[in-house]
Design goal:
The complex is a heterodimer of chains A (236) and B (199). Helices cover 43% and strands 10% of the residues of chain A. Chain A is α/β, with parallel strands linked by helices and 236 residues long. In chain A, helix 7 links the parallel strand 4 and strand 5. In chain A, helix 4 runs parallel beside helix 8, helix 5 packs parallel to helix 6 and helix 6 packs parallel to helix 7. Chain B starts with 24 loop residues before the first helix and ends with a helix. Chain B has 199 residues and is mainly alpha-helical. Chain B is 42% helix and 7% strand. Chain B is globular and about 45 Å long. The relative contact order of chain B is 0.13. Classes of the chains: A alpha/beta (236), B mainly alpha (199). Chains A and B meet through helix 2 of A and helix 1 and helix 4 of B. Chain A: Pfam families: Lipase_GDSL_2. Chain A: This is Platelet-activating factor acetylhydrolase IB subunit alpha1. Chain A: Its EC number is 3.1.1.47.
Amino acid sequence: MHHIANASLTDKVMSSGDSNPAATPTPCVDIQGDGRWMSLHNHFVSNSKDKEPDVLFVGDSLVQLLHQFEVWRELFSPLHALNFGVGGDETQHVLWRLSNGELAHISPKVVVLWVGTHNHGHTAEQICGGIMAIVQLIKDKLPKAYTLVLGVLPRGKMPNPLRERNAQVNKLVKEAVSSLPHASLLNVDPGFVHSDGSISHQDLYDFLHLTPQGYQAVCQPLHAHLKGLLEKQAEN
Amino acid sequence: MSGDEMNPAAVAQAVEDIQGDDRWMAQIWRELFSPLHALNFGIGGDTTCNVLWRLQNGELDNIGPKVTVVWVGTNNHEHSAEQVAGGILAIAQLLTSRLPKTKVVVLGLLARGEWPNPLREKNVAVNSFLRSWLPRLGQTQFLDVGAGFVHSDGTISTRDMFDFLHLTAAGYRAIAKPLIDLLRQILEETPEEKRASLL
């Protein structure tokens, strides 16, 4: 990976195209052989044709699995939410999906974006650039929508480089969106890391994915924040 | 006011089942398997090799289950159907040798992908090998829980597998029925003396 030694923060976070793989729309290659990623994408595109969601959740497994737990029906169905999460997705995959039809038939008021933890091999700057490219794309396609970026959660049982990377991603994204009226970063980590540096499997059963208890802790404040945003959107 | 008005406190009304029958994922384990005193040593993405390693490196050291349910093989992307079946057989052999009193139940691999594809054929082939090999191993049986997931048009529904691979709550309920029936049957067959000695 080449490092842009003297690039300004803006250059780093707004980089797109070939210079940042995390910000270059890229479909998932079907290496396993059953075409599931494209099946899911096609489903999202066609399913959205008769839906009128107020909220769209898009991202990786943390978004996708949310749909399988009771908390979805409890908190987000009532907000008329759609879920376009795909396990394993990195920023460039979400960017491709949203560029290729998933936003074509809907006009949600709020887009909740949660992605970045699976961007292995990318730097925090690149991942931030990927997230900001998605924020920009949403602005282009849905000029009236508000994008709520969720902070990437800590992971792994004990401190490790991915925790540092994720924290740095959140810091960079927070700075990048601070000047934007149509987007913000919400930290949804309720304090998963204990004083001894460990994460409990009661919250993240494999130290990456959330248990029902973990989802409750994340989603209650998220839900409250979303309701506030939707009310503000209604006023405008 | 008038005598025609009913006293709401005297109107019989059942408690509203707000949770409904459409129970979600976490409840299925608690509801159906916890009562059987079950432990879950599943890890997402594991291949037969990974499971073998875990079982050889401590996971069987301190327990004496009456039944061990094995469900692995769909992630063995580098291996042929015959190799995958061989890996599952090795796991069953390891279990019966390390835990002489356990009965092993091997679950068949499910279909996957929205449409017919080579991985479905591969998983069918694995199951076919297992059907013929496992009966030769004592204390081991094969259970196919995949019936009904592939519709007549060849598709799998996201109602059963939300990503055409992993089961939804509804999908888990469907496979739990035949599995629980078999587990109950096996547990009932285990005589009291054997049960006491396993404690």
